[in-house]
Structure formats: structure tokens, C-alpha cells
Specification:
Strand order of the largest sheet: 1-2-3-4-5-6-7-9
Strand content: 15-25%
Shape: globular
């Protein structure tokens, strides 16, 4: 970890300078200077015998005192020198073994992409031992509980950290709290065990305090239902033979404080790790690396809160998503080595069990997190310095043991076997992935969608309404005003064909629309120009969940 290494060198330098001053009284500046006339010469043979007696033990101090002064001083200098050198190498060894590179590392490189993680390790001089992935979260229970092809990780040697959508486009938190969906999680557990992923770390309903997922929590009632639902799931999955699952409670940083986040905590008997997702993004001012990092640490549900809450529960922390970031709306800090260094420092000095970097280029979502793609040269250099050279540490598989319970599963609606269909596309991914299947009956498209057509814009006061028609296979659209992206309606919600831009300033404005899907953002539409006669001050668009990462 670069920042700690710098501090270590500084401390070592001070220590050495103090040592040099102390040694001056013991070691002559010229210990082998000619002996002046009249000074007694040392009896070499006798002195050799005396040194031998000193080395054989006993009263070492007394034996050293019996040596000639110049020899005793020289011998003591040698001891001090060896001690200093040994201490230096011990300090270097301790630093290397206790820094960020000793914390188990994982990566997200795409759906079931073990070769991508291996390539990441080669490019970064790291040894990832974990893999982040996600189950389908938009296409219903059957698409989720079949395990989503996660058996593709079998034999890779990577421990799976798996995002589990607890409401995959259907259902409610209250019904989950009542146990209505237990059968689906029993099936999921059976399928994961059969696919060789029975020791996966499961992120049930990750980032639940955001507003972008079907399982989002909006108030204390939701929070209590989330906690009860969590307990139902854990009890159900732990009852499946062969499982060794571990569970990470994973809120997001920032967000509303109008309800109590801890109400969503299910209790430590049902949790193995407490975690958060950390991205180098900032909506405040000034938008500097220092400002961004300070916000990451001090914001509501930030790292300060996380470390305190995890310690109070007696749980280690896990950080299953983190990365540098370029964003199309300008709120990513980009090539930011300061973030890498501070993150490395933080995990090395806190009780962090593992971290999984998100090194993926999310073109469809308008952001890039792939630290290895050439756009982050300084951050990559810092990452190599802080995380490189590790030996590939693994974490244990001993799960928390919960209270003894009896889980009732409605067998009449349970799917007991994995569907025999062939997976032809990646399941709906996690927060910043691009391998999502459309929510329509159309197959996953392989190319970007065509440009939206029939774009029109109308003005009413300071509101501009932009309308368009989408090409087949569109998952969502990016709306641009005067060359700046101002909105991204659509996925994971329904695809739309219009957008209202409010509070637009007076003057002439140019709008165009670009559609996106799982392959990326397509070609922009023909631009339309409108004139706002008397609008308000032009507003700079930011996500409605200000302070959160944009989630597709």
C-alpha cells in the first residue's frame, strides 16, 4: 500500500538517523586508524580467545566488559548494526504481509468469465482468488433460482461472491417476510450446490437502501420486512444438504436517513460479513480526489459508519464492489490514484475480509470501471503498487451458525430440478454490468440498437418535452441537451419514448437521443433545436438519487 510504505520509509529514516547519532559514542569514526605511538597494542591471540568465551554464553555483559575497549566497542557496533538491519528487514516483511496485497482479492470481469479474471491478474500482477457475479434479476423466479449457469465457475479455483436478487422483477418484501417465496430459495440452494458453488458468498438483495432495485427499502416498515425476508432465505438455504454458504449484508453508501438502516439488519446469527460498495464518484464541490474520498468515508452509511457498525456486531467487513470510474455525466473522478491509495490504506488498517474490484467497461450504462483498459494509467500503477505481488490469499468457508429453525416449504410450487434449457445469454447482471436480457420476449441482441427516429421537441414555458421512436431491442435511452447527457430513462424500468426536461434556461437548445442495450450505446438520433423564450436558470442534471452510483 503506497501511502503506508511512504510512512514506513519516513519512520525508518528517523530511526536510522537517531541510531547513527547514538553510535558515535561507541564506534570511532575511523575504527581502523593507525595506532599512535605510545598506545598499547591489542594482543590479538588473547583477544580472540576472549571473544570466543563471550560467544559461548554465560555472563555476556561481564565478558564483553573484559575485552579491550576498542574491541568491545567494535563488537557492540557490529551487534547494533546487525540488529538494525534485521529490524529493517523485519519491518519490510511485516509491511508486505500486512498491507492491502494480503487481503483476499476478487474481480468482476463479466458473467462467468474466469479467463477475464485471469487476464486481469496478469495485467495487474495480482492473484485474484474470488469472483463477483450476479443472478438474473428481471425475468422472474425460474430465471433466478436455476442458478443462472454459475456452474461455469467450477474448476476455476475462484470463490464466488454472488448477487442474489431477492425479488427478481416480481413479488414484495412483505410477502417475502411471510415466507411466501421460500421454495424458490430452496431450489436456488440445491442448484448452486449441484453446480459446485455450495460455498458461495451470497449478497442477498444488495444495495437495498438505493432506489434502483425491486427490493429497495424506502421506510422502516420496508426495513423490518427486509430483515424478516432475509432470515427466511438464510434459514431455507442453510437447510439444503451440502451447502456451506456465507451471507454478506450489503447496503450501499449514502442515501436517505429518513428511516433507520439498522432496522434492515437481520441479526448477526444470519450474517457472516457486513459490507458496502465503494466507487470513486462525487456529486459535491469541489470535485477533487480528496473531496471524493472524504465523502466516501464520512457520508451517511459511509466507511466510518460501516467499520463502527461491523465492529459492534462482531463481524468482518467485505467490499464486494469497488472501483475507479469515468461517468458520462462527469461525476466520476476518472484516473484517480489517490482513491486507490486511500482505499488500500483503509482496508489494510480495518477488519476487511475481502474486496472485489469491479473492472468492467459498462458502455451501455455510460460509465467505465475497467482499470486495465488504458484509460486509468495512474490508477493502474497505484493499484499494482498497492495490491500487486500478493500470493493469492483465500478466506475461510466456515459460516455463521444460526438458531435452530424449521423451515416449511410449499412443495406444490417448488421447482425441484434445474431446467434443462441451454443458456444462450448472460443473466441480468449486477449494478454496473451490461449483459442484461431484455424484459420483452425478444432474444438478447448482439449489436447496439439503431438510432431513435422521429425525434421531436416541444416547449411549454421552461419545460421541453422530447419524443422519439425506439428501434427493436432497445433497453433504454440516453437523452442529451447541448451535448451533455441529462437523463437515461429505461432499464431497469420500462422503455420509454419521451422525456420532460424541466427548468430549462432561456435560449436555443439542441436535443438528441441515443438508445442502448446489452452491447452498448448506439448511434445518436438526428438533433432537434428548440428555443425557450423565458426559462429559468439551466440546471445540470444528476441522478435523482443524488450521491448514489448510477445503476443500470
Amino acid at each position: 500500500m503506497q501511502s503506508l510504505r511512504k510512512e514506513g520509509r519516513t519512520a525508518a529514516g528517523l530511526s536510522n538517523r537517531r541510531g547513527e547519532q547514538d553510535h558515535q559514542g561507541l564506534c570511532p569514526a575511523r575504527p581502523f586508524a593507525p595506532v599512535p605511538k605510545g598506545m598499547r597494542h591489542v594482543d590479538t591471540a588473547r583477544t580472540t580467545q576472549q571473544i570466543g568465551r563471550v560467544a559461548r554464553g554465560g555472563d555476556v555483559a561481564g565478558r564483553v566488559a573484559g575485552l579491550p575497549r576498542i574491541v568491545a566497542g567494535g563488537l557492540l557496533c557490529l551487534v547494533l548494526l546487525l540488529t538494525s538491519v534485521g529490524g529493517f528487514f523485519w519491518a519490510k516483511t511485516a509491511l508486505a504481509s500486512s498491507g492491502a496485497s494480503s487481503v483476499p482479492l476478487g474481480d468482476y470481469a463479466g458473467w462467468v468469465n474466469a479467463s477475464g479474471i485471469a487476464a486481469f491478474g496478469t495485467k495487474t500482477n495480482t492473484h485474484p482468488t474470488m469472483a463477483t457475479d450476479y443472478l438474473d434479476r428481471t425475468d422472474g423466479w425460474a430465471a433466478m433460482d436455476n442458478g443462472g449457469g454459475e456452474g461455469g465457475w467450477k474448476g476455476s479455483g475462484l470463490r464466488l461472491v454472488l448477487g442474489v436478487p431477492i425479488l427478481p422483477g416480481v413479488g414484495t418484501l412483505s410477502q417475502g417476510a411471510a415466507g411466501s417465496y421460500n421454495q424458490y430459495f430452496a431450489t436456488l440452494a440445491q442448484n448452486l450446490v449441484s453446480q459446485g458453488e455450495g460455498n458461495a458468498i451470497l449478497r442477498l438483495g444488495w444495495e437495498f437502501n438505493g432506489n434502483w432495485y425491486p427490493w429497495s427499502v424506502a421506510n422502516n416498515t420496508d426495513a423490518q420486512n427486509f430483515a424478516s425476508f432475509w432470515r427466511q432465505i438464510v434459514n431455507t438455504m442453510r437447510a439444503v444438504p451440502g451447502q456451506q454458504f456465507q451471507f454478506i449484508w450489503n447496503p450501499n453508501q449514502g442515501g436517505p436517513t429518513s428511516w433507520d438502516l439498522t432496522q434492515a439488519y437481520p441479526g448477526s446469527a444470519y450474517v457472516d460479513y457486513i459490507g458496502s460498495d465503494v466507487y470513486d464518484e462525487y456529486w459535491g464541490t469541489p470535485q477533487t480526489p480528496q473531496g471524493s474520498w472524504n465523502n466516501i468515508v464520512t457520508q451517511s452509511w459511509g466507511l466510518n459508519w460501516l467499520s463502527s457498525f461491523a465492529a459492534a456486531q462482531g463481524k468482518p467487513m467485505g467490499l464486494p464492489e469497488w472501483s475507479v470510474c469515468f461517468r458520462s455525466d462527469g461525476h466520476g473522478l476518472g484516473d484517480d490514484p489517490y482513491f486507490i491509495n486511500q482505499f488500500a490504506n483503509w482496508i489494510a488498517t480495518n477488519n476487511v475480509a475481502f474486496t472485489d474490484i469491479f473492472s468492467f467497461n459498462d458502455t451501455a450504462g455510460g460509465q467505465d470501471n475497467d482499470i486495465t483498459n488504458g484509460l486509468f494509467p495512474n490508477a493502474l500503477a497505484a493499484f499494482k503498487a498497492d495490491f500487486g505481488g500478493g500470493v493469492g490469499t483465500n478466506i475461510g468457508t466456515t459460516a455463521t451458525t444460526g438458531p435452530t429453525t424449521t423451515t416449511t416449504v410449499n412443495q406444490s410450487t417448488t421447482t425441484t430440478t434445474k431446467p434443462t434449457t441451454t443458456t444462450t445469454g448472460a443473466p441480468a447482471p449486477g449494478p454496473t454490468t451490461t449483459t442484461t436480457k431484455p424484459t420483452t420476449t425478444n432474444p438478447v441482441v448482439t449489436g447496439t440498437p439503431g438510432a431513435p427516429t422521429g425525434v421531436t421537441a416541444s416547449v411549454s414555458g421552461s419545460t421541453v418535452t422530447v419524443s422519439w421512436a425506439n428501434a427493436s431491442g432497445t433497453l433504454g435511452d440516453d437523452v442529451f441537451r447541448d451535448g451533455n447527457e441529462i437523463a437515461w430513462p429505461g432499464w431497469p424500468s420500462a422503455v420509454v419514448t419521451s422525456y420532460q426536461d424541466t427548468g430549462v434556461g432561456a435560449g436555443s437548445h439542441t436535443y438528441y437521443v441515443a438508445a442502448y442495450n446489452s452491447s452498448g450505446v448506439g448511434t445518436g438520433s438526428t438533433a432537434v433545436i428548440v428555443t425557450v423564450a423565458g426559462g429559468s436558470t439551466t440546471t445540470t442534471s444528476a441522478p435523482t438519487h443524488t450521491g448514489f452510483r448510477r445503476h443500470r
